[in-house]
What does this fold into?
Amino acid sequence: MKVGKVPENVLKRSVFKQIHTKRDEVVLGAGVGEDCAAVKLEDGEIFVVSTDPITGTATDIGHLAIHITMNDLASSGATPLGVMLTILLPEHTQEAELKEIMGQIAHVCAEVNVQIMGGHTEVTKAVNQPLINVCGIGKAKAGKLVTTAGARPGDDILASKWIGLEGTSIIAKEKETELLARYPLELVRTAQGFDKYLSVLPEAAVAVQSGVSAMHDVTEGGIFGALWEMAESSGVGLEIDLKKIPIKQETVEVCEFFHVNPYELISSGCMLMSAPDGNALVRELARAGIHAAVIGKAVAGNDRVLCNEEERRFLEPPKTDELYKVL
It folds into this structure.
């Protein structure tokens, strides 16, 4: 395709034709020449908006783009309604590639009942791989927002599913040949398939109903980064047991192979939560088929401590994600 706005016939054929999911709240959606979208909310409901780009990989970029923004909305206790997309494509991109990206986006939107409300698609010399920015729009009941800043001293700190899921999946797909030189095919395929765990909407829904104090989806910077951000935002200290942080063996193997720290690896699919009774929340999540673990406590003061048996060390501010060392 040529540099510039994607032609109208391509938009109709490879973009608009794949938009099937509709929400009653969306009263103006995607269309040729439409630069805005409109949403109607009921009394007592508020807008929740989040935006995020995908820049670390071009593999399964459509799937990742929607999941990450939906997770941001879910971590606030909001119900996702729709997305606005900005898709920037490098020169010489084929229309089939755009159609594949839109197919991935439409598939995830259908899974989570979210409408593609509009956006912009362009071929530009400014990027050297596809770049998607997603603006997600959700709704929440007034007074029911959950924030990263809600943790209080005495709260239990929990992590859902396992850390490193997104990073493990991306690395296993991008570096399949290298990994197969050491590990069996089954391990590599299992690691690649961790992308099936990326949504945190189910655990967010359970947590909101169970009186969670704070939620934060674990993305760039990994669990260490998310712990720091929750503590900093809430103004609390932490006592975290490193051995209680849930991690899959496949993640351990992939990270050891590439000499990266799994605790600082992008971890969409894992939700960090704070709750007055963490064990009760773990039980509620288990009833919904979601693995979770209490990994520590929020404490008064500013000390953020990681405990590994007899060793104690202080948590540091977020660093550059370990994924970039591999890619």
Q: What stands out?
A: The chain has a mean pLDDT of 94.
